[in-house]
Amino acid sequence: MDAQPDYTARVARAKDRFAALNKKGNRTFDSVKATLSMMNSGARRCAYCEDSAADEVEHIRPKTLYPELVFAWTNYLYACGPCNGPKNNHFAVFAEGTGVLTSVARARNAPVVPPISGKAVFIDPRVEDPTEYLSLDLTDTFWFTPRAKLGPVEHARADYTIRVLQLNIRDWLPQARRSAYLDYLAHLKGYVRDKAEGLPRAHLDRLAEDIRARQHPTVWFEMKRQHASMPELTLLFAKAPEALTW
Predict the structure, then answer these.
(1) CA–CA separation, 185 and 98 (whole Å)
(2) Helix-strand-coil split of the chain, %, nearest 5
(3) Is the Cβ–Cβ distance between 184 and 42 less than 8 Å?
(4) How far apart, in Å, are the Cα atoms of 87 and each of 82, 84, 164, 194, 197?
(5) Pairing mode of beta strands 144-146, 134-136
(6) Alpha-carbon gap, residue 140 to 220, rounded angstroms
């Protein structure tokens, strides 16, 4: 893309080249998608919401803003359309020199100019752990919120990521997380029961692997993180402390 005469031309070329190559049957992108699939949770679940099937190559830094990253492997994520659509070219930075949170998304028909420099606000799950910024309510709403005691910059990043991906306002997502919680709970109870009955280790290992491979792994992570404050989970994990390592 750097061979293009100016930024506007690089943006147009990036979009055209990606559209031309990102098709089923293209060996390079079939390989990219296969590798991204293995990086997803559960049965190829979206790397953002963990709910819908991942079927779109998402650019974490939008290609319409950062054409130099259109073919950067580290800028790829496999996402679902309901996540990729709302995110689109939404992106923000903490403006260099001022630290002010500034959207660099380009409005329709706006001049095609490079985004201002600054540290990204959006949490990049390729290189960052979102659970360090986000917490999931397991007792009522099943909404994501910024974790308590975050600094102002980290809180802003968590809040921005939740809003851009619409992780709470798409009502089926909290419902799916609630269902996932009940599913994990049932499987953990089954594991504890079978362990108490002395079933073979190989059987218990299969149950543990089944839990590790389920959808919405962040729900399971939060069950472990919050178990000490939830009596039912406290009791179950006390009977199967090894589950805290899954």
Answers:
(1) 47
(2) 50, 10, 40
(3) no
(4) 9, 5, 6, 44, 49
(5) antiparallel
(6) 16
pLDDT one digit per residue (tens) for the chain, 246 residues = 566 679 999 999 999 999 999 998 999 999 999 999 888 876 789 999 999 999 999 999 999 999 999 999 999 999 999 999 989 899 999 999 999 999 999 988 899 999 999 999 999 999 999 999 999 999 999 999 999 999 999 999 999 999 999 999 999 999 999 999 999 999 999 999 999 999 999 999 999 999 998 989 999 999 999 999 999 999 999 999 999 999
With tokens 């974490």, the residue in question is: 60
Task: Indicate the pTM of the whole model.
Answer: 0.92
